[in-house]
């Protein structure tokens, strides 16, 4: 099992979700997060230029069985890119997932996902 | 609203809006009109909050800015030419008014009107109506209109759509103001404000098209707490809107205030009951919508109906608005925040429906002017005014929209629509929690 964490641009959330649903990946968790990478976003407030150090992003978390890893990673990579790839498009982290438990039934492992 | 001034006097002096000298300031009436002007101003941030809460998080500031843009743009245009176009003497065969002296409000510097109120107060009071009307339209095209295009649209719209309709209905020599025995009954803007904004909003929404993903994608309100607060402020402000439209501080004012309160409450109660029965859950959005439906319906009628009539209009309008929104959902057009669904629909119900609830003394006075003047005759006048408002608003708004779309552009690009107006157009975000900076 894998735990896939993708950090993407806010405005790409709808597109990525639509694409994931089209690929039959329908169990996801979404958070609003802030952070910094290489992207610089310049904001002008009352004529003063400000470079915020924390930029809002959206984090998508998906737990899946191994065979779905590639589909998920490919779908997100393809849809979260802006204009074929720009700084700030985000990152995807893939981790091994030790266990997964469905609270309702107590099932464990791959079938609980 | 001017009709409450002695009509004979009006007939004798068509340019009464700017006769000077002779009248004395009535401090009571002036104080109430100053208060009313302020209350109507309060409706604009109220509307901004109501609309702002109903859109998605990414568009909250952009949507509120649409209302504030009306304050800025119309606030300036009104003082320069708006008042002259609305309340100057007939020009172009009565299509609009015009008076060179009223440009920059120059000629009213010393004027106390026949209602014993300084004309400056009246001009500013009317100016607030001209501001809130285009601000209402914004709800129909929420989340997808450019800021530039919107500013340009309202600047042109106020001159070519609002000013003519306002002149017909409210200027002392306006066509509908003088139609029939006692003119069209539009106390505080059933046609001028509500139907006009509702129909213009619908036209604009149909012209620029639905939001990306509508109606399949779920578009949840970002902050119903703010919307409910905004609806409350609108209710408060509406006392200035309606009771102020008596341009006095007397029995007429009290009557208007009373029926306004009752109709709003009846509307709110009805909507919540419909939802409780039909949808199982009464919602805060339903409460807000019912308040608005009741207030809109009583707007044209506040000078002529009594409490029973106010309740009937509030209830009827709410049923009609609820039904209209179901029709919208069925047809799938994107009148995003139900501008036609509430303002247009309740405006039509109120302006036409009021005929059946007019107080006896009004009929008696009408009968003295034209013998046998009754429901059928007044109904024709009301329907003519409603029909003219609908046709004129729809056609001219469409023309303005086409011209602005072809030159400045009205609809945002796909990217802006996805990112949101706040970030892309204004470089800001509505809520600090989304951005830890």
Provide an overview of this structure:
The complex is a heterodimer of chains A (113) and B (437). Chain A has helices at 13-22, 69-80; strands at residues 2-8, 29-35, 43-45, 48-50, 55-64, 90-96. With 113 residues, chain A is an alpha+beta fold. Chain A has a single domain (2-112), classed as Alpha-Beta Plaits, CATH 3.30.70. In chain A, a hairpin with a 2-residue loop joins strand 3 (43-45) and strand 4. The model of chain A has no long low-confidence stretch (mean pLDDT 91). Helices cover 65% and strands 1% of the residues of chain B. Chain B has helices at residues 7-12, 27-54, 60-87, 119-137, 147-170, 190-208, 224-243, 251-279, 284-298, 307-331, 339-353, 360-369, 375-407, 414-419, 421-426; strands at 90-91, 96-97. Chain B has a two-stranded antiparallel ribbon. In chain B, a hairpin with a 4-residue loop joins strand 1 and strand 2 (96-97). Chain B is globular, with a radius of gyration of 21 Å. In chain B, 56% of the residues are buried. The model of chain B is unreliable at 1-20 (pLDDT under 50). The interface between A and B is medium-sized, with 15 and 16 residues.
